[in-house]
Write a structure and sequence with these properties.
Length: about 325
C-alpha cells in the first residue's frame, strides 16, 4: 500500500487562510501524465507570498505551493520521459494553479518539464532555482542583442536578491565588467566575491530624474522596475540594452521615450514562467556550464519540509539572504 505523501497544503475556508505541513493520498494528486518523486524544491519570494497569504498568488484551493522542483520520474505515459529520468520544473503556474513542488511527490504535465542537464546534481539545480534560471535568461537576452564584454560596464540592480546576485556571478564568469546597485552597501564584500567590480547605492536610481542622463552603462539587468528602471533607460549608452524581470521597487514605469528614440536604447522583457521549452533547455545548459559547486554552497541553505512554514515567514520579513533549498524526501 502507498504511504501518505507529506506536503505543504494551503487552504482558504470562509476567508480563513492556512498553510500547514500535512499529508495527502496518492489518489489526491492531479491527473497528469508524469509522476515524480520530488527530490528538492525551493522557497522563492512567490512561494513566501503563497504560504503566508501575503499576496494573491494561489488561484485555487487546496493548493500545494512550490513554483520549482527537481525530481525523479516514477511513472510516465509521455514519450519524452521514462522512469528514472531526472527532471526540472520552473513556473507554468505550478504552485499557483497546479499543485507544486513542496511535497514528497508531484504529478505534472510533460510539456512543463525539461531534463536535468548533464554536469549538475539535482540539489545544485534547486540551488540555482528560478532565480538563477531567470538571471540566465536575462544574460542570454543581452547576448542576443549583441552585448559583449567589450561593450562596456553592465549594471545589475537588486544586487543582493536571488536574481541580482546570480546575474552578477554569471556576467563575471562570462568576462563582463559588472556594477552592482544595492540598498545594502554593508554587503559590498560579498557582492565583490560574487564578481562585481563596482558597488553603488541603489538610491542613485530610486527617485525621479532627467529623461536623458549621462551615458554610463552599455547594458543592465534590472529586477527592480519603477523609477530605477526609468533611470537606467536614461543612463544607458547609445544602443544600450536593459532587461526587465521584476518589480521589487514597484510595478510602475515612470519613464519617457527619449532614450528609445534618441539613443536607440532597447528594453527587453523577461518572463520565466511561460517560457518555451527550447529557451529553458538553452538556459539550463548554459547554467550547468557556468556555475560551480563552491558558489552554489556559498549562496544557499538546505531545509526540510518541516521547516518550510517558518522559513516562509522569515523570507517575507526580509530575514533570509540567498537561496533556500527544500529537501523534500
Ligand atoms: P529578492 O527578494 O531575492 O530580491 C530583490 C532585491 O531587490 C532585494 O534583495 C533588494 O536588493 C532589491 N530591492 C528590494 N526592495 C527594493 C526597493 N524598494 N527599491 C530598490 N531595490 C529594492 O527577489 P528575486 O531576486 O527573487 O526577484 C526579484 C524580482 O524579480 C521580484 O520582483 C520577482 O517577483 C521577479 N521575478 C520575476 C521573474 C520573471 O519570470 N519575470 C522570475 C523571478 C523573479 P538590495 O538589497 O541589493 O538592494
Amino acid at each position: 500500500m502507498n504511504k501518505p505523501i507529506k506536503a505543504i497544503v494551503i487552504n482558504k475556508e470562509d476567508n480563513n487562510y492556512s498553510a500547514l505541513l500535512s499529508t495527502i493520498e496518492h489518489s489526491d494528486l492531479p491527473n497528469e501524465n508524469v509522476s515524480i518523486n520530488v527530490l528538492y524544491s525551493t522557497l522563492n519570494y512567490k512561494d513566501g507570498l503563497a504560504i503566508t497569504g501575503k499576496g494573491p498568488v494561489v488561484r485555487s484551493f487546496p493548493m500545494v505551493p512550490g513554483i520549482d522542483l527537481v525530481g525523479i520520474v516514477t511513472n510516465s505515459t509521455s514519450d519524452e520521459f521514462k522512469n528514472g529520468d531526472n527532471v526540472i520544473l520552473n513556473g507554468f503556474g505550478v504552485g499557483e494553479k497546479h499543485w507544486g513542488g513542496l511535497a514528497q511527490k508531484a504529478a505534472l504535465n510533460s510539456d512543463w518539464l525539461i531534463p536535468l542537464p548533464a554536469g549538475i546534481s539535482p540539489k545544485q539545480a534547486m540551488q540555482i532555482g528560478t532565480a538563477g534560471y531567470t538571471a540566465m535568461l536575462s544574460v542570454i537576452a543581452l547576448e542576443k542583442q549583441g552585448i559583449t564584454p567589450e561593450s562596456g560596464e553592465i549594471l545589475v540592480t537588486g544586487a543582493n536578491g536571488g536574481v541580482g546576485s546570480f546575474a552578477i556571478y554569471l556576467l563575471n564568469q562570462l568576462g563582463y565588467n559588472v556594477t552592482a546597485a544595492t540598498g545594502r552597501l554593508d554587503q559590498s564584500e560579498y557582492l565583490k566575491e560574487l564578481g562585481a567590480t563596482q558597488i553603488i547605492s541603489r538610491d542613485e536610481f530610486s527617485t525621479p530624474s532627467k529623461p536623458l542622463q549621462k551615458e554610463r552603462f552599455a547594458a543592465a539587468i534590472d529586477s527592480v522596475g519603477s523609477h530605477t528602471l526609468a533611470n537606467i533607460c536614461a543612463s544607458l549608452k547609445y544602443g544600450g540594452v536593459v532587461t526587465a524581470c521584476g518589480l521589487a521597487q514597484g510595478m510602475d514605469l515612470p519613464a519617457s521615450v527619449a532614450p528609445f528614440i534618441l539613443r536607440g536604447v532597447s528594453l527587453i522583457g523577461i518572463d520565466s514562467v511561460m517560457r518555451p521549452k527550447a529557451d529553458r533547455i538553452e538556459a539550463w545548459d548554459h547554467l550547468a556550464k557556468l556555475v560551480n559547486a563552491d558558489y552554489l554552497d556559498k549562496i544557499s541553505t538546505e531545509i526540510t519540509l518541516e521547516q518550510v512554514i517558518d522559513n516562509a515567514e522569515r523570507l517575507m520579513e526580509g530575514k533570509i539572504r540567498g537561496r533556500v533549498v527544500v529537501n523534500c524526501q
